[in-house]
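Bug report (template v2)

What were you trying to do?
Predict the complex of my protein with nickel (II) ion.

What happened?
Run completed; filing so the output is reviewed.

Input:
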Amino acid sequence: MKVTYYGHSAFQIEIEAEGAGPKTLLFDPFLTGNKHAEEAGISPDGLTPDVVLLTHAHGDHWGDTPAILKRTGALLVSQYEVVEYAKREHGHEKGHPMNTGGTWSFDWGRVTNTYARHSSSFPDGTYGGLSSGFLLEVEGKTVYNSGDTCAFAEMAWIGEDNEIDLAFLPIGDDFTMGIREAVRCVEMLRPKLVVPVHYNTFPYVMADPEDFARRVADAGFEARVLGAGETLEV
Ligand code: NI
Ligand code: MN
């Protein structure tokens, strides 16, 4: 699979799904106003996802979702409240609602909506349901995107029950956990590779990703710091 990072918590995974062909999965597409994406010249108009997976409704995740859904007709996979909002406010009918702990098998892979300890509301103040993360089983690989959260003890179960090839964890602090807690999550999840997200986008979330990478290495794991537009083959 090919992973492309767009800065903050936005990234894309391109897979070749057995039986379903090539699929592009886009997570938390906040690009307009995301300085990493803007500095790298990444425009939401250039993205053509088949599926948009949204961890929660906050503006720095919801971002360009309405425009991307409208242009591409992509399937929206998210919390029930988020899928209903997209239907009601933007006329987007193609949604798959989930709630915390639920798993669904799509023809391109399995998605589990995982617990995240965080709030969720849309930029207009509408309640967005519980915040979430995603555990993906696609192309024979397991990817965990924690979404915005602090560390929580049950994360150890996710690590025990799954062989995680790639994990995405926020490190920016203030709105999510910071570096110290994120390293603790790595120790619970035991992923083959971890990519830090949700940092250095605005003043509340300043963090040094290289410091995170060093501490992850000290703990016996591997982190990869990606710049906006950078890709990774897993
Ligand atoms: Ni948030
Ligand atoms: Mn956020």
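What did the reviewer find?
The chain is about 25% helix and 30% strand. The mean pLDDT is 98.
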